[in-house]
Write a structure and sequence with these properties.
It is built from 13 helices and 18 strands. It has 435 residues and is an alpha/beta fold. The protein has a six-stranded parallel sheet with strand order 6-9-10-11-12-13. A five-stranded parallel sheet has the order 2-1-3-4-5, with helices on both faces. It has a five-stranded mixed β-barrel with strand order 14-15-16-18-17. Helix 8 links the parallel strand 9 and strand 10. Helix 7 runs parallel beside helix 8 and helix 12 runs parallel beside helix 13. It starts with 5 loop residues before the first strand and ends with a strand. The relative contact order is 0.08. About 2% of the residues have low confidence.
Length: 435
């Protein structure tokens, strides 16, 4: 009989899910479970799922079924958004699963496993104050809030994750210090909407106050902001970014669309002219500003004219990084009653058109960087080849904005160096450490 039980975990979905997966790693380790990368031999398999759209739901279900088939003897735990969204319905449709775990029960997982009676021997609980086991090289995600109080017609997140619940500022600052002590030189702030932070507590300038506290942490080099609701960006944010050497002039502002008709039916504020003015003002107020955004195609009220507006915006606005999503009707959302009138083939064609337009812009943008010297966070040896190091420039967010491949120079994982850009290929760049 094994002296220590083993577990395997797969994390699907967004960075906010990764934070929960890192919490699971910490509580399992504290309970004397041993992680294994051999999923066929694990005593416990944990799938931390995503269920934001039907494509993500299907990916989660496929992962559960595949892992169960590969190791039918393992005790299968399903965590994350899937059990939050479908609750009791899953018990009949996925009998392979031994436990559906809600996010607020993550810390109790070892105790629940012990009580299940399915696992041999007792769990020896060790005292541990480690909130997370960091799985990202040189950076870490800091989730500052859970849930959302917005009312976007297409989004199932409020019904899955509940209303906005901001984390206490003191707790976040302590967690940030812990992450930096564990080697993170970059903190990536995430939430469903960073600009809503503190509003559930009646605080008006909570995000600015939190950023000022984080800015004072010794050893932290970069602070990156993801998911800023366009209408909620604090007036003082540009000033704070300009004053701080740590808060990157990089803002992720999901716009979703630029047609007033579509935005209104999405239950999102804004008009095309106000969106453009906001972007121009931010660019004027923040030197070297890099913008990322996401756009949705195929929403039920998007006709040819509305798509042409979106196409023109992508062609002329020069957003540095863009992600494109195809609308998926989600049961339980306000938009579900609108049906799905835009054919799937048309949606795919529209998304491909926008990607092509932006790809041409991005190639020009990256070619213009050749010869420039920029700061880069080195993430380690490239998975493509052991001959190269791989990292990201300051204007590349992890996992979504491409990579920098280092062809000359030495660095340890998690170090920030100046690099000279020597070449560009699609979303990726190549460079040499110049220090």
């Amino acid at each position: 009989m094994k002296s220590r039980r083993t577990y395997y975990i797969v994390s699907l979905g967004c960075p906010k899910n990764r934070v929960d997966s890192e919490r699971i790693l910490a509580v399992m380790s504290a309970a004397d479970y041993s992680f294994t990368d051999d999923r066929t031999a694990a005593d416990v398999i944990i799938v931390n799922t995503c269920a934001f759209i039907q494509e993500a739901v299907q990916e989660s279900v496929n992962a559960i079924l595949d892992l169960s088939a590969e190791n039918p003897e393992a005790f299968l735990v399903v965590a994350g958004c899937l059990p939050m969204r479908y609750k009791v319905d899953l018990q009949e449709s996925l009998p392979e699963v031994g436990l559906f775990l809600s996010p607020d029960s993550l810390d109790e997982l070892p105790k629940i496993l012990k009580a299940s009676g399915r696992l041999p021997a007792a769990v020896t609980k060790r005292t541990s104050r480690v909130p997370r086991i960091v799985t990202t090289p040189g950076y870490a995600y800091l989730r500052i809030a859970e849930g959302c109080f917005r009312n976007c017609a297409y989004c199932a997140i409020p019904s899955i994750r509940g209303p906005l619940r901001s984390e206490p500022q003191e707790k976040l600052v302590n967690e940030a210090r812990f992450l930096v002590e564990r080697g993170a030189v970059e903190l990536v702030l995430v939430a469903q909407d960073l600009t809503a932070y503190g509003k559930d507590q009646g605080r008006k300038n909570a995000l600015i106050e939190l950023l000022a506290e984080l800015d004072a942490i010794s050893g932290l080099r970069w602070i990156r902001l993801l998911y800023l609701y366009p209408e909620g960006i604090p007036q003082d944010l540009p000033k704070l970014i300009n004053q701080s050497p740590k808060i990157l002039p990089y803002l992720d502002i999901p716009l979703q669309h630029v047609s007033q008709k579509v935005l209104k039916s999405m239950r999102r504020p804004g008009k095309p002219e106000t969106i453009l003015k906001r972007i121009d003002r931010l660019r004027n107020d923040i030197p070297r500003l890099v913008l990322r955004s996401t756009l949705m195609v195929g929403f039920p009220t998007e006709g040819e004219d509305e798509f042409r507006q979106l196409e023109s915006f992508v062609a002329t606005c020069g957003i540095d990084h863009l992600g494109f999503f195809i609308y998926s009707p989600e049961e339980g959302t306000a938009a579900f009653r609108l049906g799905d009138p835009v054919p799937a083939k048309v949606k795919r064609k529209r998304a491909a058109t926008l990607r092509s337009i932006h790809s041409k812009f991005l190639r020009k943008r990256n070619k213009a960087k050749v010869g420039a010297i920029e700061e880069c966070l080195v993430e380690g040896v490239s998975p493509e080849t052991e001959l190269l190091l791989q990292g990201r420039l300051w204007d590349q967010a992890p996992e979504v904005d491409g990579s920098l491949f280092i062809t000359a120079g030495l660095s340890a994982e998690g170090e920030i160096h100046k690099v000279r850009i020597t070449d560009a290929h699609k979303t990726d760049l190549f460079g040499e450490i110049v220090e």
